[in-house]
Amino acid sequence: MKSRRRPYSEQRPFDTGGGVWSVPVPIPGNPLGYTLVYAIESPAGPVLVDAGWNAPEAWLALRDGLGAVGMDVRDVRGVVVTHFHPDHAGLAGQVREESGAWIAMHEADTALVRLMRDFQGDAHRDFQADMLRRAGAGTVEVEEVTGNRPRPPAMPDRVLTDGDLIDLPGRRLRTIWTPGHTPGHVCLHLEDADRIFTGDHVLPAITPHIGIYPYDRVDVDPLSDFLESLEKVKGLGHLEALPAHEWIFHDTAARATEIGVHHEEKLRRLATLLAEAEEPLTIWEIAGRMTWNRPWEDFPPILRGMAAGEAAAHLRTLEVRGIIHRVTGVDPVRFAIHS
User: Fold this and answer.
1) Would residue 141 count as lying in a domain?
2) What residues pair up with 337 in beta bridges, in sequence order?
3) Which of 2, 41, 309, 328 is deepest in the core (most CB within 10 A)?
4) Phi/psi of residue 146, nearest 5 degrees
5) Spatial contact of 166 and 79, defined as CB atoms under 8 Å apart
């Protein structure tokens, strides 16, 4: 089964075969349009892979979409969240309230959800502002980017680790830990059907956001984690992919190879950019000079913040590989090519 990405208004729930149904759930105000929520049949009730954005119209789409394929949201047994982002985890809590379902998430993202829920008052805004300042953003840009924070998702009931089997009677659905897009992102291998739910890890036409937050961290390397996770998925073979966005496609391994090549080329271009710079550059300056799908001047503030996070992730990988270095004793942090 393969479909092409169409506007949300043209999307419908459909049978992907083998007891797996796809339900499109809208993401208000987002160019992605929708999240594909999957419902896997079982004798004990369906298990959902992701749940969609927490908004009234999204809830109606999920509830009515399940109803259109003969399922009642009140019968849902569990929700496996591929990662904590709001277009995946947002409605998991409401599903649990309606059905008593469990919510499962990898332990690394569970820790992040707990941290998000512990932020009090202006703490998150202050955290964002300091991160942006250290990256070289101007005062006006800091004001424009900060303060945009979706509600934290519900805390999961069940914590997953790599290789865990999901509680899905009659099927074999195994957790594949694929960090990069988030520290606790997981894919789910439906072993009895040679299919894989890829979340945002492997998408058919676009690549997921890989960023570092705060931008100047030195204890993580999410892009290297992501590239290693692509190799892990490739090792499972040429499976049919059921991603969270766009469309179902064949040969996950081939697409994972393409995505890896894309990031290696991006790393080469970034190294060249720094080699040609006349002086060390801040993360914000580097992001503004990188090649994106639109001019930097046309980026809305929130996308500039995400672009800086992606620039930071690529810089960190080049740093770990010994190609560039960060200049010490300066604020904001700056990077330069090794001579």
Assistant:
1) yes
2) 324
3) 309
4) -70, 155
5) no
Spell out the SS3 assignment of 212-250.
CCCCCCCCCCHHHHHHHHHHHHHCCCCCEEEECCCCCEC
Q: How far apart are CA 221 and CA 210, in angstroms?
A: 10
Longest dimension (CA), the chain: 65
> 186-190 and 240-243 as β-strands: parallel, antiparallel, unpaired?
unpaired
Instruction: Say if 58 falls within a structural domain.
Output: yes
| CATH code: domain of residue 28 | 3.60.15.10
Q: Which domain holds residue 151?
A: 8-337
Q: What is the pLDDT of residue 3?
A: 45
> How large is the average pLDDT for residues 90-111?
98
Over residues 168-201, the pLDDT tens digits come to: 999 999 999 999 999 999 999 999 999 999 999 9
CA distance 67 to 13: 10
Instruction: Give percent of the chain with pLDDT exceeding 70.
Output: 96
Whether 142 maps to a domain, the answer reads yes
Instruction: Calculate ∠ Cα 21-24-166, nearest 5°.
Output: 50
Structurally, the chain folds into a number of domains equal to 1
What b/e string do you get for 240-249 counting C-beta neighbours within 10 Å, with b at 16 or more? bbbbbbbbbb
Q: What is the DSSP letter of 165?
A: B
Q: Whose structure tokens read 């059907």?
A: 193
Count of residues making up the chain: 339
For residue 5, what pLDDT is reported? 57
Mapped onto helix, strand or coil, the DSSP state of residue 150 is: coil
How would residue 147 be classed by pLDDT, with cut points 50, 70 and 90?
A: low
Residue 136 included in any domain: yes
